[in-house]
Amino acid sequence: MPSNREIAKNIGVFDSGIGGLTVVKELAKLLPKETIIYFGDTARVPYGNKSAATVTKYSFQNTRFLVEKDIKLMVVACNTATALSLGLLQESFPDLPIIGVIEPGVKAALKSSKNAKIGVIGTAATISSQAYNRALRQSERGVEVSVQACPLFVPLVEEGWVNKKVTKLIAEEYLAGMKRIGIDSLILGCTHYPLLKKIIGQVMGKKVKLIDSAQTVAQAVKNLLQEEKLAKTTGKGECIFFVSDVPEKFISVGQQLLGEKIQQATQIDIEKF
Amino acid sequence: MPSNREIAKNIGVFDSGIGGLTVVKELAKLLPKETIIYFGDTARVPYGNKSAATVTKYSFQNTRFLVEKDIKLMVVACNTATALSLGLLQESFPDLPIIGVIEPGVKAALKSSKNAKIGVIGTAATISSQAYNRALRQSERGVEVSVQACPLFVPLVEEGWVNKKVTKLIAEEYLAGMKRIGIDSLILGCTHYPLLKKIIGQVMGKKVKLIDSAQTVAQAVKNLLQEEKLAKTTGKGECIFFVSDVPEKFISVGQQLLGEKIQQATQIDIEKF
Questions:
Q1: Catalytic site positions of B
Q2: Is A150 an annotated catalytic residue?
Q3: What are the Cα distances from residue B16, in Å, to A164, B94, B112, B247?
Q4: What is the DSSP letter of A122?
Q5: Distance, in angstroms, between A183 CA and closest chain B CA?
Q6: What residues of chain B score a pLDDT lower than 50?
Q7: Domains of chain B
Q8: In chain B, at which end, N or C, are there fewer CB atoms within 10 A of the end residue's CB?
């Protein structure tokens, strides 16, 4: 085990914006003694409509920033960044365990599905990367995978329209194909989508299990820390927040996703990393 | 007249992404002999949900890039960037005439309105900057100004949902207040919105004039070039495109806004400027 990890203390988490706070919420619940360093790239959000090259460049800048913050493990809490750059990050930072949001969601869906018909919804970039299809098809069971990009879901969440009639109409349009195919498990492949769980559940019906990867990611982090004996056993945990745009909106909107008050967030110049 | 403008040949235009191509289209129509250098910040789009400080930083980087391209005049073809940074750009580049998209739209609305009730729609950043309200209230006539942020319009246009039922429902929700007030002129304060003209027109009714600033901006540019004797009188014009993300999507989607084929766009690293 490399020396920098032996003395490193923190868990790093990055996302394109505020969505990754749903992962932080679950991490804090499951690992209350850990210090979590969160970076939200609010000056360049969203990632879901950008190219693989640009998202990868941003992911490396975000990682270099977090590496300076004494981290022992990093979570890529953004589906687009995981789909487009997780492999490259793992190759380039071999001493740092890096966990993405796709694999835990895929494992949970494979476990949940009885009829082997699994759906995945995400941003345009996540879906066109085919990262979920590839991961689901590596399973020994033959699974039928149905995917759908839902580019309007993130702006609808950010507008706060999570219970509106138009949001349900848009969800009906996006999800019609999956309903016809008869999937029994649907991966919410974007950290914003858990906030639309109610409407997505109404559209898909009670028999379809919605897979929210935030919980499964937090469990994967806990398992890894325990296996590698990196878990903190004493002390009181905390969350420290960094953003690339001014922090006011992050603080006010982020509280809804985190489920508790954000006291402070510090703005940094991510383009320098 | 400063010497760099005497020999400078081109018109610079920047926007957060593809929306500014509606301005390029009108410029090319009105000034067919000019060479237009366009920069679309596709790696950091959108600007409308970001802070004044971040949008201003991006606007300065974009301007420094264009200044190296031998320009005699620059158009800020993005309402958010105009609202948040036009004054600072003009102060910092005193030798370069810089035209934004707000003033020409305001002048056209004041000319169009008979009942002195004018509406403005735009991104969250444009509306909260109050730049339109300030400009409209400088008029000698007392005008009643009604403003509304429409954050879902840009993603709806980028999704291509310009004729959908849900888009009309969303427009009805956003525009209900303005209809009640009885405005007779509505400024489309975002370069994406002209693509929703049909639906916005249906919702507002035939008596409300929709002000599309692309045409009025192009006229303002033509007037200024002629006044300052900077207009080209010979040769064949062309448009040269630069973007910050990979060019493929810009080329395919941009053609709809420009109304003609985009042969090529070159990717640059805007963070270096």
A1: 78, 190
A2: no
A3: 29, 23, 28, 14
A4: E
A5: 25
A6: 1-6
A7: 3-100+215-272 (3.40.50.1860), 102-213 (3.40.50.1860)
A8: N
